[in-house]
Amino acid sequence: MADDDRETQLFELEALESVLRENKVTKTSDWTDENAEIEGTIEVGFDSISDPKVTLTGTSESGDEFSVSLDILPPVRLKFKLPKDYPSDSSPKLELESDWMNQEQRKMCESELSKICEENLMMGVLYLCYQGIIDLIDQMPTRTINLNEACKIGEISIESLKKKLLGKGEEAAEEHFVNTLFDCEVCYDSLMGLNCIKFQPCAHVFCKSCIFDYYRSVAKGVVSKAMQCLAEGCKSEASQSIVKEALGDELYSKYEEVLVEKAIREMDDSVECPRENCQKVAYVTDRQRHLAECSYCQFSFCNLCKQTFHGISGCKWKKGDKERLVKQWQEGDADVKADMCRQFGGEKNVAALVERFLNEEWLDSNSKPCPKCAVSIEKNEGCHKIHCTKCDTYFCWLCTAVLSKEDPYQHFQGDGTCSGRLFEGVHQFYDDDDDDDEHDDLFELAFDDGSDYEDDEDSDVEFQLEEWLEQEGHFDDGPDGTTFEEEEEEKEKIEGVE
Amino acid sequence: MSATRRLQKELGDLKGCGVRAYENVECEETNLLKWTVLLLPDKEPYNKGAFKVGITFPVDYPFKPPKVAFETKIYHPNVDEEGKFCLPIVTTENWKPATKTEQVMMALLSLINEPEPNHPIRADVAEEFQKDHKKFMKTAEEHTRKNAEKRPE
Lengths: 498, 153
What we know:
The complex is a heterodimer of chains A (498) and B (153).
Chain A: H1 2-19, E1 25-27, E2 38-44, E3 54-59, E4 65-70, E5 76-82, E6 93-97, H2 103-119, H3 126-138, E7 144-146, H4 158-178, E8 181-183, E9 190-192, E10 196-198, E11 205-207, H5 208-220, H6 240-265, E12 270-272, E13 281-286, E14 291-294, E15 300-302, H7 319-331, H8 334-344, H9 347-366, E16 367-369, E17 376-378, E18 385-388, E19 393-396, E20 402-403, H10 426-431, H11 436-447, H12 467-471, H13 488-497
Parallel strand pairs in A: 3-7
Antiparallel strand pairs in A: 1-2, 2-5, 3-4, 5-6, 8-9, 10-11, 12-13, 13-14, 14-15, 16-17, 18-19, 19-20
Chain B: H1 2-15, E1 25-28, E2 31-39, E3 51-56, E4 67-70, H2 101-113, H3 123-131, H4 133-147
Antiparallel strand pairs in B: 1-2, 2-3, 3-4
Helix pairs in contact in B: 3-4
């Protein structure tokens, strides 16, 4: 008889292991030792309950009341010991272990377990016991658990119990997620949670493959903000590890660089190092003298002309000089050109210089720097509410004031200087390039805030030429890059407007 | 192509969405990437006509937004003479792969029904809308009668 029972026991356990998920049944004795009783533990999880959410409440030792919610009730452990004559003559010895149950709940469970055993004499009851506990907890009228009443209190402090349960609850939720089927709203595939990612705190779930494809597609274009959840209007950000997995090392480091650079550029005193082989972040260390210093290559430069710092002496290039030089080069005869080549160190250098001035001229009359990140922005159509896609700043094209993100149009209402001028001059200014007076008006409007800007010569408005132009196809080919810096006065002025 | 299954499902969903204003949708016989929706605004001055809206999906849809524009002329502060408009939900910047064409149509319908004269594309029409609303309604109705498609029975 006993041999039969043992065989039945092993058979029951094997069936149980295959019905329950992996690792839910653990052996606490040697099941192959025929002289010892079979002992083990079944982990009873509650993720199958339709609304498994619970709230843990309590008062900590220090007197603080707490209330935290858990997605899933932490599992309990059902310890079993099978007598040699189970199931033919006796019932298994069962013991319930739980971190969160109070005396009453525990008693209820224990009496339920004995009831199940009595009603099913001579049968394998382990699965029924397992299901019985789940059903009982499912019927629990409220899912608020007061930890002060938990049986464990006394053995363990309430703080550490809370910590333990939160951890267990998270584990249970993670396990539940991995084993649940989700419909991806992007590709309409149904996939197990294992192949999905849940965003926090929104809890939107999409399949990994869509998320990764999307992030790669974004990263290959213009990155202007951190990667987000794929749901319409959702602003949850993806964790770094997910983005990294999606993009791979190379693309990720590029992406990270853009974000870091963006964060730094949003700081007020940072500019780009004008050295072509550096282009790292430099800081304006002396506003009065326009001194900027690169934090990487230690280059000290004038933030106006981007040349080596020249102290109190003026910038080397003035607008008049540039125009004269360009004209000379374009219209001068061979002798004039030869002279210029001697003066500036070879034809290559002069040509580069002339091209640079032409580019600057083009930029001066066709673009404005974003008041926040200074990227050059060309306005080719539309109203005066400009959105910088690089740093996500809204500004007014007329006065370069930074506008509210919530309602950028407000600036053009009410009784401010730009009120009612959302579309002003859109046609005159941009359809009629020859009308210099109007252009000057525009610039005066832009800077009439009483700063010392107007007193400076126009020539001070110098842009550090960058590859942006070349990239846009205006001129030569050039290395990658998108920004160039503006002069410092303008920055000061803009801060004033903000 | 992952876009195919999604587009087919979206097309079916839109046809069966039960919203009269945009459930009339056709896709080019040989090209699932090109749809035409017959938009039926329910507010004056546009409720007497139907407006064709062309939707072009990029090959890498839904990772990139569709291009949406009116094919029927409409006199509206937020739609230009070429039928283009600015709908935040389909801009590259705001686009999310889980955004459905039905949501885009919903947003477009509400823009047409409730013009936003403070965010205009056509400043002249917006000014008329705000300063001489009667004249605007008359012009728009006239324009609808002349240019819009017939509404299906």
